Amino acid sequence: MQNAVLVGLSREVALERELSVVANNIANMNTTGYKADGSVFEEYLSATARGAETGSRVSFVQDRGIWHDMSGGSIERTGNPLDVAISGKGFFVVQTPRGERYTRNGSFQINADGVLVTSDGDEVLGDGGPIRFQRNDRQIQISPDGTVSVREGTSIQDSQRGKLRLVNFANLQQLHKDGNSMFAASNGVQSQPVDTTTTVVQGTVEKSNVHAVVEMSRMIELTRSYAQVAAMLQQQADLGQSSIDKLADVPA
User: Fold this and answer.
1) What is the pTM of this model?
2) How many angstroms separate the CA atoms of 105 and 124, rounded?
3) Hey, how many other C-beta atoms are within 10 angstroms of the C-beta on 56?
């Protein structure tokens, strides 16, 4: 009976953690550039717990980790010249107080110093560093290869302000989240240039890749599973209490 309780508790812990992952996905359904997460579990065979009758090792549920769904989200047109979406594989590079970070969230703006920044105020990096604009710049154009051009003052000639730095990684699961739409690379993981098929689309943003119906269905399934395990544990507790009560009634 004790083994059944321990197995049930391990399952409840795993369900609670997976429920947290699903709830976070649902909460970020409308977060630009957000990538959905999933849970990974594995079987854990206890070295000490044994079955009462067969003596076999008892199997528990163990939370192994979280994986990231790096599939692309839908592209939404905004018409804002500072909004940029990536078509293909790759990430924008952003300079934060914690170091370089990588994101698919191309909802950019210009700060008071004329620097292209994210909605959180972090500098968006180009091939030569932060992309800076002048006060009299107008008609901002971002080409498919990421080149940022403007018309300066009354000039009818294009002037370049930099080129968006785009990178990719051989193994995307080696990235870990740093916020809702940013990623950091694990130690020793190096970025690489994007391939020639990757382009940027001005005036658009990439929406979250969370599938609302799937996540809501999964949440209902997890909630039901948790309730079933809780009912089983309650039955085990009632059985134990019943056994104690019967033993108490046995004459000394």
Assistant:
1) 0.81
2) 11
3) 11
251 residue type, one letter = P
Which tokens is 185 given?
């690379």
Residue spans of beta strands (DSSP E) within 118-171: 123-126, 129-130, 137-142, 147-152, 158-163, 166-168
- Tens of pLDDT, residues 205-235: 999 999 999 999 999 999 998 888 888 777 7
* Residue 21, Ramachandran bin (φ over 0: left; ψ between -120 and 50: alpha; else beta): alpha
Phi, psi of 233 (to 5 degrees): -65, -35
Q: d(Cα 237, Cα 252) in Å, to the nearest integer?
A: 25
Transcribe 166-181 into DSSP letters: EEE-S-GGGEEESSSS
Q: Is the distance from CB of 37 to CB of 20 less than 8 angstroms?
A: no
Is the Cβ–Cβ distance between 38 and 210 less than 8 Å? no
